[in-house]
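lol ok so funny story. i was supposed to be doing the assay writeup but got distracted and ended up predicting the structure for this chain instead. priorities right. anyway since i did it might as well share w the group, maybe its usefull for someone
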Amino acid sequence: MNKNMFFVAGTDTEVGKTLVTTALMSACSGEVLGIKPVAAGAGYESLEDETNLQNDDARALLQYCRPLLTYNEVNPYCFKQAIAPHIAAKINNRLVTVSKLVDHCQKIFSANRATIFIEGAGGWRVPLNDSEYLSDLPKQLNIPVILVVGLRLGCINHTLLTYEAIENDGLTLAGWVANCLSLNMDEENQNIETLKEKLSSVAFLGKIPYLSNPIAQAASSYLKSEKIFNFLA
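and the output, tada:
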């Protein structure tokens, strides 16, 4: 297992993967890099340049990379349409394969002796093409997973199913984060306590409250980042 690399997964789309990833990156004292191999939903870098698509999540990761990477190193596959990646790839006549993503991540790792966070897209079992899934990337790299749980109705079911899938794929869940998606969720704390009980063997990295201005530095203050960095030891 490569313990200097983590895959950041979510229980669904829009649950705060980028916020958690950048929070962990900002808390890291040494060299740290963030990669989002596949992103669907992007705009042009500027009105003057309609050839260079960039995704907001990938741009956020880029800001916290030490040393600095190029945008294409952070996000090699970027699609304009905010839809499932395999559908976006077909529309744009591009083929995304696990082997290409593995090669890209290993190239970044071999050139930089840094802690690397690889952010997923959507939930765990997101198709890349007709036969492969994005979850095959952490499997091939054999790296631990950090799970971001978006706190909303149904999150217990989504979390436990995702945990089962991660374990069935032979990977280690290094820790999980509870991220509040709204100001008021019925029985929010009870949902968290239930998940703590069900995931008793997994490190709970903290609860990020609903943030009106969700930035990395604010979120990192709520995380027990040392539990992840101790995992590297």
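The chain has one domain: 5-231. DSSP finds ten helices and ten strands in the chain.
back to the writeup now i swear
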